[in-house]
Design brief:
Elements (H helix, E strand, L loop, with lengths): L5 H10 L6 E5 L2 E5 L1 H17 L7 E5 L4 H12 L3 E5 L5 H11 L3 E4 L2 H10 L7 E4 L9 E2 H5 L8 H8 L6 E6 L9 E5 H11 L10 E4 L6 H12 L3 E4 L6 H8 L3 E4 L1 H14 L5 H14 L1 H5 L7 H16 L7 E4 L6 H9 L4 E6 L6 E4 L12 E2 L4 E4 L4 E5 L6 E2 L3 H6 L1 E2 L2 E10 L5 E6 L4 E2 L5 E2 L1 H8 L5 E7 L7 E6 L1 H10 L7 H6 L1 H15 L11 E3 L19 H7 L1 H10 L9
Parallel strand pairs: 1-11, 3-4, 3-5, 5-6, 6-7, 10-11, 12-13, 13-14, 26-27
Antiparallel strand pairs: 1-2, 8-9, 9-19, 14-15, 15-16, 17-18, 18-21, 20-21, 21-22, 23-24, 25-26
């Protein structure tokens, strides 16, 4: 019959009698949480919410980093028939207050003193009646979640199980607020049936075993991370929670996971670190030789086969294995989602002996629409659409979707909900195509397309994906909307740039001084000039702006899931961008 509601996952977990369901990092190391302990904690929190007056349909927010209590609170809310409203822990007090007000949240569960203080600051301006806190801190303003979990039952609670089973596929399960890359955040309404149907189909053809372990570090406030965790629990995989991404490398080495899920930005950083380590002779020559060997075996890697040639085995021992060891050394399944990965990045990893299985979807589709699997993989595509979905391409190239995982609409926004559909098809906002073999490819976001003042449309993502493969480039953003020519703003990969500067006898005392040096300016103009030789005339980038910092969610230049926030980039660097266009002539960056 398959999954009908998300509560089916919880009840299946409770029936599994697993001694190591989840792992939570504590001062003394990684603490296992059994399925019996998880069940006890979920029921305890649910009963506590009932005592606070929470009933079916009420909204309860979670403001927390990834941790066991996140999953406990989520399943407790869902079991009651209430609605989970995730909030990114990196949001400002005002942004947090907006979501609490818009969703009409009656209760909010927070993780730490920092998150509690944030909520208390805006509490009078929200409908929140009660606050739960996960950390054991002294406060008179919140109820300790641990007190609720300890009051959970020592054995199965038949009445509670019946309540969880009473949920219907049509019941609203969660309101997930989009990260706002192009405008104000909107709450996507996803039902139990939306998310359960997607969990049921999205990972059917991916190899997973009960002995597998995966790290949960991408924010659970994002639909991709939450969907993955639901899916892994459903398939019996152990999940270890890593609250902060800066601890990811240590957690990978300590736990040696077998499944790795990342957004493209994480894969980009791993690649940059590997290339940075191989900058000196003889490592550089060995590294490039190994990638050349891998390139000749790329097809086998993407097909899931291990090459048998002596050259590949030597390259694997000298280079590929070192890259894998940086991620723990035991990963057998690499997944990517949340944003386009880029063909060149997929190729680089394949050349290093790693096949990344890219998926594609949106918050509004719960989220997976298509995914590459070991049985159906095509380079440059995001896979075949799931069996229970229909995908069509509109006349203007927009990808349209319909099926059981497509959302109900936007919370409190009937007009925007109506505008999101055409003849029953959800408009993804992505430009793509379906090939003769049924594989879906995505070329760009419709709203991201740049229209110059001359009326030419430029797709920025393919250009940015090519640029960021250069080890000297950390991130880049194509400019040109309503401007007379396209340009590029680049945040350098500073470890590589600083090494290059020292090798070229450039003296600098700050990043600002470094990027202003004529030789550095010339270096990046040369990189862009090389790229221009492969671009159409109207796409050629005529100017380069270097900035002395990395893009980040804290600066508003990346979303919490590390995608470019173009509006934020334009706002943060408005002065440099305006000055560049004001004083520039129309000569193009010269090709080298």
């Amino acid at each position: 019959m398959g999954l009908k509601t998300l509560n089916d996952i919880f009840l299946q977990v409770a029936d599994s009698f697993r001694p190591r369901l989840l792992l939570q990092h504590q001062a003394l190391g990684w603490l296992p949480v059994s399925s019996a302990e998880f069940y006890r904690d979920v029921v305890g929190v649910a009963r506590g919410l009932q005592e606070l007056g929470i009933v079916r349909g009420d909204r309860v927010a979670i403001l927390s980093e990834n941790r066991v209590e996140w999953a406990v609170t989520d399943f407790a809310i869902l079991a009651l028939g209430a609605v989970t409203v995730p909030i990114y822990s990196t949001l400002t007090p005002d942004q947090t207050a907006f979501i609490l007000r818009d969703a009409g949240a009656r209760v909010v569960a927070v993780s730490t003193r920092e998150q509690l203080d944030k909520v208390l600051l805006v509490l009078p301006h929200t409908p929140v009646e009660h606050v739960l806190v996960m950390d054991n801190i002294e406060t008179a303003h919140a109820t300790h979640l641990q007190r609720l979990t300890l009051h959970g039952p020592s054995s199965r609670d038949a009445a509670f199980d019946a309540l969880a089973r009473s949920a219907q596929p049509s019941d609203l399960a969660t309101i997930i607020y989009t990260s706002g890359t192009t405008g104000p955040s909107k709450g996507a309404m996803l039902t139990h049936g939306n998310m359960a149907s997607n969990v049921d189909y999205s990972m059917r053809d991916l190899p997973m075993r009960s002995a597998d372990l995966s790290l949960s570090y991408l924010p659970l406030s994002h639909v991709t991370a939450r969907h993955v965790d639901f899916s892994l629990l459903y398939h019996g995989v152990t999940i270890a929670y890593c609250p902060f991404i800066e601890n990811l490398v240590r957690a990978l080495v300590e736990l040696k996971p077998t499944i790795f899920v990342a957004v493209p930005r994480v894969y980009e950083k791993i690649r940059m670190q590997a290339m940075h380590k191989a900058t000196k002779f003889p490592a550089k020559e060995i590294f490039h030789w190994a990638l050349a060997v891998g390139r000749r075996n790329r097809t086998q890697i993407l097909a899931g086969r291990r090459p048998r040639s002596l050259a590949w085995k030597l390259a694997d021992r000298l280079v590929y294995s070192k890259i894998r060891e940086g991620m723990g050394g035991k990963i057998v399944l690499y997944l990517s989602g949340g944003a386009p990965l880029g063909r060149e990045l997929v190729e680089w990893y394949a050349d290093a002996g790693i096949a990344i299985h890219e998926g594609y979807g949106l918050t509004e589709t719960s989220p997976v629409i298509a995914v590459n699997t070991p049985h159906a993989y095509k380079l440059g595509a995001v896979g075949k659409p799931l069996e229970n979905l229909e995908v069509s391409i509109a006349a203007d190239g927009e990808v349209l979707v319909r099926g059981p995982s497509v959302f109900r609409g936007y919370w409190n926004r009937p007009e925007e909900s109506f505008a999101a559909f055409v003849d029953g098809w959800f408009k993804t906002g992505d430009i793509g195509n379906l090939d003769a073999d049924g594989f879906l490819s995505i070329t760009d976001r419709k709203k991201d397309l740049i229209k110059t003042s001359g009326g030419k449309f430029i797709a920025p993502q393919p250009i940015e994906n090519t640029l960021k493969l250069n080890p000297l480039i950390g991130s880049s953003a194509i400019l040109g909307e309503k401007r007379k020519f396209p340009a590029v703003l680049i945040s350098p990969h500073f470890p590589m740039l600083e090494d290059w500067a020292r090798a070229n006898h450039i003296v600098f005392t700050s990043r600002e001084e470094l990027i202003a040096h004529p030789k550095v300016q010339s270096l990046y103009e040369g990189i862009v000039g090389d790229l221009n030789t492969n671009l159409a005339r109207f796409e050629k980038l005529k100017r380069v702006i270097l900035v002395p910092e990395e893009f980040s969610p804290g600066h508003g230049t990346l979303t919490p899931t590390l995608k470019l926030r173009r509006k934020g980039i334009e706002e943060r660097y408005r002065r440099q961008i305006d000055a560049m266009y004001e004083h520039a002539d129309l000569s193009t960056v010269s090709s080298t």
